[in-house]
Structures are given as structure tokens and as C-alpha cells.
Amino acid sequence: MTNDAGPLHHDSVAIAQTIAVQYFPAFMRSHDEVLGFYSNNAVLTWNGQNLSGKSEIHQYFKTLPEVSIQVAGFEVQTVPGTNLMTMLVVFGSIEAPGNLIRDFHSTFYIESMPEKKEALIRYHTFQLI
Questions:
Q1: Does any domain span residue 5?
Q2: Of 9, 4, 2, 3, which is closest to residue 78 (Cα–Cα)?
Q3: What are 16-53's pLDDT values in tens digits?
Q4: Which of 8, 16, 37, 86 minimizes the number of CB atoms within 10 Å of its CB?
């Protein structure tokens, strides 16, 4: 079996680990804090609801209840044709007070800007399973 996408870029692994380890704890602490992970023109699809831009994402996050999130694992891949985009798939469980524990699947497309030593979420999907 060959890997047509080429090797995994080493920066992709570091970026993915940072998002996987820091994003969800920040989300549970403060919806304001988690906005720092998103680019200004980020697009988020949350359980089928499409949101564009950091401001719209922030307004939506303010409507969500406090939750407990457990990350079970993640997978990372450099987007073919560029080493500036990383795809990260995270899966785990989420629980809101008074609700059942549900599994989730979340995909991030993260844009790397090496000149600024920065990586920000451009596209993000979150789906309860």
C-alpha cells in the first residue's frame, strides 16, 4: 500500500496535538478563550448549523450549555498538495448537565502560518453521533 498524499508533515503533528489537547479544555472553561483558536474568517458547522466568522461563532457558543468533554483519540493528516493545512479528526464523548453522555466526532482544518509561528482553525465541524 502506498501513501499518495505523501509523508505527514512534522508541523502537522505538533499543531494537531496542540489543538487536541488544548481546544476542548479551553472550550469547557470559557467560550471567549476558545475563540483564540479560530481565524477571523473561520467556518463552523455545529450539528448541522452553519456559522461564518469569529463573531457569529462566538454568539452561537454563548447559547450552548456548560459541558464536560472527554477526548478518546485523534488522527492527523497533512492536506495533500500543501504543508500549510492540517486535517485533525477528534472523537470522544460529551455530557451536558441532566443529559445522557453522547459520542462526538469533530474535524478541524487548520491553517499554518509559519512566518507568524501561528496556526488557526479555518474550518471546523462538530457532530454528535
A1: no
A2: 9
A3: 888 989 999 999 999 899 999 999 999 999 999 999 99
A4: 8
